[in-house]
Amino acid sequence: MSRYSKLFNELKAAKQGAFIPFVTVGDPSLERSHEIIRQLILSGADALELGLPFSDPIADGPTIQKANIRALEHKITTQDCLDIIRKVRDEFPDTPIGLLLYSNLVMAKGLSSFYQSCAEAGVDSVLVADVPVRESKPFRLAAKNAGIEAVFIVPPHVTDETLRAIASYSRGYTYLLSRAGVTGAETKANMPPEVMINKLIEYKAAPPVLGFGISSPEQVNEAILSGATGAISGSAIVKIIEQNLNNQTELLAALAAFVSSMKNATIKA
Q1: N or C: which end of the chain has fewer CB within 10 A?
Q2: Chain centroid, CA 208 distance in Å
Q3: Is residue 56 annotated as a catalytic residue, yes or no?
Q4: Side-chain half-sphere CA neighbours of 41 within 13 A
Q5: What is the distance between the alpha carbons of residues 36 and 28, in angstroms, rounded to a whole number?
Q6: Quick one: pLDDT at residue 236?
Q7: According to the model, what pLDDT value does residue 190 have?
Q8: Which residue ranges of the chain lie beneath pLDDT 70?
Q9: pLDDT, tens digit, for every residue of 9-40?
Q10: What letter does residue 227 receive in the DSSP assignment?
């Protein structure tokens, strides 16, 4: 059983949803990034979604774009990030770890080599944000050969044909977008219609997890009550990092308070 399946089964039995924070690995530095990721788990994160520094993150809004720039200014490489992930995996063997990244990072290392390196570092899933499902076959095959679960995004206005394909191909979880556009806490999430989640269930998709614009416990609670298996929050967390660049102690304390409140919101009444 995969780490995602084990986690979702345990949370369902405990009548909880999953809270999954996103940060860019290497932001604002390798050492501090490692401490940040540890704090997320210690504060209640059920799983992690991590980004790798990239110069053109087209799916991300200004907050996460700046995180990429901070990491790139330290000349942090993909291998540096995988080394951090390996350290996290060694300390937290049961926590699912997913990557959300862009195809150039995969192609630069070569498909097979990239996915194999991810597997060796302890990564569970990879979502390539700029590869549409119709062009995803080589990525899916490379992921499968390495034992990595390929995750796909469901946009708000997806066709039924594409939704069926995503349900067929996505593994681990299905990333359900709350709204169109880029990531960012600046624009609030719109809760998905129940019909979308019901269709994913009907098509036997991997558990739907809601992301984009999730920045408050109220939004997490609404996502869980709407039928989502979990919620992902990225820009709100990266904003906390940005606001505490000069004080790591205060940063870790702020992250702990935020993650704890978001996790508590996943508990069903």
Answers
A1: C
A2: 12
A3: no
A4: 19
A5: 10
A6: 95
A7: 56
A8: 178-193
A9: 999 999 999 999 999 999 999 999 999 999 99
A10: T
Q: What is the pLDDT of residue 234?
A: 93
pTM: 0.93
Name the residue with tokens 């809760």. 191
pLDDT of residue 192: 54
Question: 49, 80, 124, 149: which one is catalytic?
Answer: 49
Torsion of CA 119, 167, 197, 199, to 10 degrees: -170
Residue at token pair 């907050």: 63
Q: Which two tokens stand for residue 48?
A: 């992690």
Residue 194 phi/psi, 5° resolution?
-60, -30
Q: What does each C-alpha distance from 209 to 59, 63, 138, 154 come to in angstroms?
A: 17, 21, 24, 10
Q: What is the C-alpha separation between 269 and 265, in angstroms, rounded?
A: 10
Q: So what's the pLDDT on residue 269?
A: 74
* Strand ranges inside the chain, DSSP E: 18-24, 48-51, 97-101, 125-128, 149-150, 153-154, 174-177, 208-211, 230-233
Burial class (CB within 10 angstroms; exposed 0-12, middle 13-18, buried 19+) of 153: buried
The SS3 assignment for 144 reads: helix
What does the pLDDT look like over 142-179, one tens digit per residue?
A: 999 999 999 999 987 888 999 999 999 999 999 998 65
Q: What residue has token string 């901070």?
A: 70
Q: What's the distance, CA 117 to chain centroid?
A: 19
Catalytic residue among 27, 35, 56, 60: 60
In the chain, the amino acid numbered 193 is: P
